[in-house]
Specification:
The structure holds 2 protein chains of 2 kinds.
Chain A lengths: L8 E5 L4 E6 L9 E6 L6 E6 L2 E4 L4 E4 L5 E6 L8 E7 L13 E6 L1
Chain B lengths: L4 E3 L2 E4 L5 E6 L6 E7 L6 E7 L2 E5 L7 E4 L6 E5 L8 E8 L10 E2 L3 E5 L1
Parallel strand pairs in B: 2-11
Antiparallel strand pairs in B: 1-3, 3-8, 4-5, 4-9, 5-6, 7-8, 9-10, 9-11
The chains are: A mainly beta, B mainly beta.
Chain lengths: 110, 116
Amino acid sequence: LAKTTQPISMDSYEGQEVNITCSHNNIATNDYITWYQQFPSQGPRFIIQGYKTKVTNEVASLFIPADRKSSTLSLPRVSLSDTAVYYCLVGDGRTYKYIFGTGTRLKVLA
Amino acid sequence: EPEVTQTPSHQVTQMGQEVILRCVPISNHLYFYWYRQILGQKVEFLVSFYNNEISEKSEIFDDQFSVERPDGSNFTLKIRSTKLEDSAMYFCASSGGTLTSNEKLFFGSGTQLSVL
């Protein structure tokens, strides 16, 4: 299984760009990288997914280097409502067992 | 956007009792999952289910747990004899395919299980 490692917590201020990096050294060739956001007492919610290079959607960007051993979620101009836990998840095509890591607790300050 | 729905939102039970947590996955999805989250801790994988059988399960998913898809829409998690340490938020999820096929997990809003 491709284990993921992320910083436990980060603080930022409103309006700043936040970058959260996830390490996944043993990612498999067919695995996609997916990021989820979780607010207290809610289920994780999909943010963005990518395989390589850069992916951008209306809420975030995902940067994946050529070796795919890490990925960086970029949140532009965060607001207080972006305070949440962010998880990266690596799909394991060999099983149907998707393991969440400890996640990164982002706190956005006014 | 389509949703995974879970019922009930809260369940209180006595230790030793059986509970059934219910989920309605997104209608055209094929893969179903249960996760749990103890307060303040990370989301833990319990079990995945495909083609009417368990695909994978974690060490948490022991003989006290079972899953079933009794009809074409519901997906249930049963805990036969609840323990205090089963108290957690239980999340159901579904996907159209595996995460190697550019799919994503859709999660329900969870059932908060409290075992007294």
